[in-house]
Design brief:
The complex is a heterodimer of chains A (156) and B (422). Chain A is an alpha+beta fold. Chain A contains seven helices and four strands, in the order H-H-H-H-E-H-H-E-E-E-H. Chain B has three domains: 209 residues, NADH-ubiquinone oxidoreductase 51kDa subunit (Rossmann fold, 3-Layer(aba) Sandwich), CATH 3.40.50.11540; 85 residues, Roll (Ubiquitin-like (UB roll)), CATH 3.10.20.600; 93 residues, Up-down Bundle (de novo design (two linked rop proteins)), CATH 1.20.1440. The chains are: A alpha+beta (156), B alpha/beta (422).
């Protein structure tokens, strides 16, 4: 029995046959795993070696190098806030401070925040700075007032 | 293509449903591919050489010349579109995907024919979730209508294209780092020479061009090299996408002829600064380009040679406006932290040097600075240049030296203020 669903296995086979080398399938396969399970778990890496012959060392190399692969169980809503030049100029820090406050309000009640916050390099939408992603959703011109409304949408 | 003044890659600006194949075809889309396929591949290379088109990703290498480096006797060749837009301040390739992904595809298919490549990749950063879908749709449409795949519109030429998605690494925007990533490895850049045109993807001859560069190709086929050279300067022909960001009234992407006045771009096109702010400095070509002070800005022309002459660079055309009420130290620190974070770790000078610079700046911020710190940073930055496999190290060093060069007094004053608060 594979740890992966049948649908996922079909996708893996498709990627493994698609490129000039099987190794090129590692990045797209990891994207699929992360979309399905939220993060890359040790057993996934084990299974990719056992079931598909993708050497653990090759998979681990990719997982650890690229910052968008997660190796820990994520919170439901992951906030990626651009903390690069333009977003900083346009007040990113003030908005991030607000997000931290919202997150802390959960901890104060003894709850785990459904949000995580990570500063990320330029998201390539500097005309809409400050910019952030919540999971895969992009938000532009996020000031400290607007961010509260956005977080409320996610149940804050 | 829709005819509009100074508009090549933004020709579809203001046209409804500009992304759809139907709209693209209605405005003459893929007619240039038809024309190109009736020409000899070498004639296309010569045409692009004659146009003087230079790479729009940042380095400005002549595109036609790059194409001509492919060894004549090689059989398997690859074309890669560098769509990994990640240079801080840059959002122009994203705009092309928003306006007309088919223009990029047409440019790619023409380029593939010119270099006789049968397989290509577009490499896009993963954070462009929406844009990835737009391009996927365009690729599907191009396959369905026979512009991609086998025997393209009955020409006998075949070209297959795959969309490959990155996973968050700035260094993969470096062309050989991108090749490592396409090979399913960590994005370590490769030693050059051999250059990718000789030994690239899987060791095979590979041409890597930026999205904007490739999207320019159909226009050059349609109008010719002379028409292209009517825009821009002798050494920087054509138009360029400029991304204006920061506290300006109208931030966005502007297509303008190269040689365009920077002052005009900021004060007329982008509407000047908001809230009565005054301009202090401008980063003219993305985070890796050295900063310009106000005096430079007022006379600067936006082309490869003018900016290089002023000790900066045109880079990706990302114009970041820094207002008077921002401490230049803060901009410096964000920039230094970024390059430290994105150094891939392969080469010691870059891995360690970017960290040293970031640490010294951190120390200054924590009131531990000394008057010699900025001289030290300048020396370290100088040691970073030209000593590594790829240009990320130089990209970190150049702005560091630029901040010290242009704002030494303000930076030293900042150390003093901080020391006095100890």
């Amino acid at each position: 029995m594979s740890v992966f669903s049948e649908k996922l296995q079909d996708k893996f086979k498709h990627y493994l046959a698609r490129y000039e080398t099987r190794r090129s399938a590692i990045l797209p396969i990891l994207h699929e795993i992360q979309d399905e399970y939220g993060w890359i778990q040790p057993e996934h890496i084990e299974s990719l070696e056992k079931e598909y012959g993708l050497a653990k060392v090759h998979v681990q190399e990719v997982v650890s190098f690229y910052s968008m692969y997660r190796t820990e169980k994520p919170r439901p809503y992951r906030i990626y806030f651009c903390d690069n030049i333009v977003c900083t100029l346009m007040g990113a820090e003030k908005t991030m401070e607000k997000i931290r406050k919202v997150m802390k309000s959960y901890e104060d009640k003894g709850l785990e925040s459904p949000f995580s916050l990570e500063g990320v390099p330029c998201l390539g939408v500097c005309d809409g700075a400050p910019a952030m992603l919540v999971n895969k959703e992009r938000y532009l011109r996020v000031d400290s007032e607007k961010v509260e409304e956005i977080l409320m949408k996610y149940g804050a | 293509m829709p005819a509009a003044k100074h508009k090549i890659v933004t020709a579809f600006e203001g046209i409804p449903q500009s992304r759809s194949l139907e709209t693209y075809l209605k405005h003459g889309g893929y007619q240039n591919l038809k024309k190109a396929l009736s020409m000899k591949p070498d004639a296309l290379v010569d045409l692009v050489k004659a146009s003087g088109l230079r790479g729009r990703g940042g380095a400005g290498f002549p595109t036609g010349l790059k194409w001509s480096f492919i060894p004549k006797d090689s059989k398997e060749r690859y074309l890669v579109c560098n769509n990994d837009e990640g240079e801080p301040g840059t959002f122009k390739d994203r705009y092309i995907l928003e306006l007309s992904p088919h223009m990029l595809l047409e440019g790619m298919i023409i380029t593939a024919y010119a270099i006789q490549s049968k397989k290509g990749y577009v490499y896009t950063r993963c954070e462009f979730y929406e844009e990835i879908e737009w391009l996927n749709q365009a690729i599907d449409e191009a396959y369905e209508t026979g512009y991609l795949g086998e025997n393209i519109i009955g020409s006998g030429f075949s070209f297959n294209l795959d969309h490959y998605i990155g996973a968050g690494a700035y260094v993969c925007g470096e062309e050989t780092g991108m090749l490592s990533s396409l090979e399913g490895k960590k994005g370590y850049p490769k030693l050059k020479p051999p250059f990718p045109a000789v030994a690239g993807y899987l060791g095979k001859p590979t041409i890597i061009n930026n999205t904007e560069t490739l999207a320019t190709i159909p226009w050059i086929i349609e109008h010719g090299a002379e028409a292209f050279r009517k825009f821009g300067t002798e050494k920087s022909p054509g138009t360029k996408l400029f991304c204006v960001s920061g506290p300006v009234k109208n931030p966005g992407v502007f297509e303008r002829p190269l040689g365009y006045p920077l002052q005009k771009l900021i004060y007329e096109d982008a509407g000047g600064l908001i809230d009565g702010k005054e301009l202090k400095a401008v980063i003219p070509g993305g985070a890796s380009s050295p900063v310009l002070n106000k005096e430079d800005v007022m006379t600067m022309k936006l082309d490869f040679e003018s900016l290089a002459g002023a000790g900066s660079m045109l880079g990706s055309g990302a114009v970041i406006v820094i207002p008077h009420d921002v401490n230049i130290f803060d901009v410096f620190k964000v920039t230094a932290d970024f390059f430290h974070h994105e150094s891939c770790g392969q080469c010691t000078p870059c891995r360690e040097g970017t960290g040293w610079i970031a640490n010294i700046l951190q120390g200054i911020e924590e009131n531990k600075g000394s008057p010699a710190d900025f001289e030290r940073i300048y020396k370290i930055a100088t040691q970073l240049m030209g000593r590594t496999i790829c240009a990320l190290s130089d990209a970190a060093a150049m702005p560091a030296r630029g901040f010290v060069n242009k704002f030494r007094d303000e930076l030293n004053a900042y150390i003093e203020t901080k020391r006095n608060t100890r």
